[in-house]
Amino acid sequence: MRFLNRSVGRLSRHRRRPLAGAVVLLLALLVTGGLYAVLSPASSAEDKADQADQVAKGRELFLVSCSTCHGQNGEGLVTQKGKLLGPSLVGVGAAAVDFQVGTGRMPMAQPGAQVETKRPTFDQDDINALAAYVGSLAPGPAIPDKNQYDPSTYSSDKEKEQAVTLGGQIFLTNCTACHNFTGAGGAMPRGGHAPRLLDTDPKYIYEAMLTGPQSMDNFSDGNISPEEKKAVIAYIENMREQPGYGGFSLGGLGPVSEGLFAWVAGIGVLIGFAVWIAAHTTRTNKKKGTAQ
Amino acid sequence: MSSDLTSPEAAHDGHELNAHTDALLPNPGLEEHHWRPTDVDPKAEKRAERQVATFFALSAICTVLFVLSYILVKGGPDGPVWLGWGASNLALGVTLGGALLFIGIGVIQWARKLMTDVELVEVRHPAASSESDRAATVAALKSALEESGIGRRPLLRNSLIGSIALLGVPAIVVLKDLGPTNHDVEQTQPYAGAGLEHTVWSRGMRVVRDVVGTPIRPSDLEIGDLVNAEPELIFGKRDGEEVDEDELLEGAPLQVAKSKAATVLLRMDPDDIVSDVTRNWSVEGIVAYSKICTHVGCPISLNERTTHHLLCPCHQSTFDLADAGKVIFGPAGRHLPQLPLGVDEDGFLVALSDYPEPVGPSYWERNTYSVEDVFKGWAKSNAQAAEEYGYKEGGQ
């Protein structure tokens, strides 16, 4: 005990030295760091608790806004006549929810040939909660990272150029049948349409490829790899930035809009000229030689 | 109304008619002519002259600007951009268009304001020639027939008709030069899958992704996945190894082989498959069909996942991929050929044979068989050999 007292006393003699404050601060930092390292499993448990909270919040939102058609547990509902009211959401993954709700397609305003985009009903926090709930039903594609889909994350211009070249080939092979060579979209059977891609957020393009919304095929990671998906998005962004070398693109929809323009504007102007050529010129009541 | 007015003789004679109507209602003659301001006012005339000359001058300015912009404004992807359009095209188009348009406007303005202003009356005549002209023509024809003796000499007449008719034959015979026959192509072209009847697909050829050329495992694909695929040989490989030079496809044969062998791969729920033939040729719900429409050969990959309907964007022919590619809408006359699929020892998807029937649009020598007959024919010569790649009835 004496020894302890003496050593404390010896230590205490140093307490007013110039470096004492710094030493104490260093010790305090070490203790805090050590404590954090020891207790960090507890904080990951906290994360889990957060996730559980998010899933619980998502479930509440789901029960209110989605369960009418998709069932109380996302199992999907069928009408008495056997018509599909809402498909099962088991295994569609968080990415599908983020796409459908984030673009405003869900909750659906009315049934029809095509579920249209509209202003999103939920903010991103609510969407994340819904996605967490649906993602918890069964394994499915998760919401992608910015690194996965955003072409501005390429490290160099050269890398981006190579991606645009590869993405162009993949786009022309896999996407143009429905979405048009210019990404302007196109008509589909029975009143549906493939949407225009040029104004779509890269995240939603990525999620659409991953999950195949509505009539669209899946382009899962085993089909088109994540790098190739990002390259396709780089190509679409590149198309968006292209100036119109051919003048007015008229929506890039081909013969429909071009034909309409030729018939209405082109022939209209020609008729205007014909009317002008054949119209009466101004006449006067004055006789020749009388005007001065 | 008197009878002579309606009689044909009277109607033919315009003058008599005019005389008659003039008696009923006297011809008031031409209205008094009102002159244009430019005809009566020399100042207005000068003004109009200057106006027209201005249009011609504007045209000349546009032409000069066209030449200048051709020299000065750089075209192509590196050129400047104005208002979101390529500057070179915009400048050339606007200036040349203006040059032509201003000449047109000037000429019309000239005609309207300055050229002679007279009103003309043109009397309408009957459309038919006069009786005497018609009689003279018929007489001339008759005398020509008479003098040539074509009516009296049937030998000459018939041999002439025969020789003229025979002149049609050269026009048909030279059609042969439109291209080699299908048979010729198959006999003379040294590469695999030449001609209309076959493609480069063969037993054990791996199915790879188009563009990147990587082989596919069934587990890579989820239900609803659609892959645009090609045979591995298109990428110069066989079982992952580079092929020998004599087998390597290059240049035009490569392009032809690639376009004919194009394939769409679709994974669907195995329970959705309707046709037994389709099930026999599928692997775990993965089916492969030719990507070439049987109507006029457009590439089709416009698939609706929810219905398994593959739609051709050219003429809306629609094929049911769950039911052996049956045509359910549109002008296509035949079902879409299906590629029998199997799995090789490395676990990659392979073809069990070439397409069992020719792909693409119809041609003369082509027969049409039902899906069941096509399958029977295929099974007779291929089923046993295909077992090496896991083939069994009811799907692999």
Q: H/E order of the elements of chain A? A: HHHEEHHHHHEEHHH
By CATH, the architecture of the largest domain in chain B is named 3-layer Sandwich
CATH superfamily of the domain at 144-242 in chain A: Cytochrome c-like domain
Please tell me how large the radius of gyration of chain B is. 38 Å
Query: How much beta of chain A, percentage-wise?
Result: under 5%
* Broad structural category of chain B: alpha+beta
**CATH T-level fold name of the domain at 144-242 in chain A:** Cytochrome Bc1 Complex, Chain D, domain 2
Largest sheet of chain A: 2 strands, antiparallel
CATH-defined fold name of the largest domain in chain B: Rieske Iron-sulfur Protein
What distance lies between the first and last C-alpha atoms of chain A, to the nearest angstrom? 135 Å
Biggest sheet strand order of chain B reads 3-4-7-8-13
Protein topology:
The complex is a heterodimer of chains A (292) and B (396).
Chain A: H1 2-13, H2 20-65, H3 67-70, E1 77-78, E2 84-86, H4 93-102, H5 124-135, H6 146-149, H7 157-174, H8 176-179, E3 186-187, E4 193-194, H9 202-211, H10 226-241, H11 255-278
Antiparallel strand pairs in A: 1-2, 3-4
Helix pairs in contact in A: 2-5, 4-5, 4-9, 7-10, 9-10
Chain B: H1 3-6, H2 8-12, H3 14-24, H4 37-40, H5 42-72, E1 81-82, E2 85-86, H6 87-113, H7 131-148, H8 154-166, H9 168-173, H10 182-188, E3 207-209, E4 226-231, E5 237-238, E6 241-242, H11 251-261, E7 263-267, H12 276-280, E8 286-290, E9 302-304, E10 309-311, E11 318-320, E12 326-329, E13 338-339, E14 341-343, E15 349-351, H13 371-386
Antiparallel strand pairs in B: 1-2, 3-4, 4-7, 5-6, 7-8, 8-13, 9-10, 10-11, 11-12, 14-15
Helix pairs in contact in B: 5-6
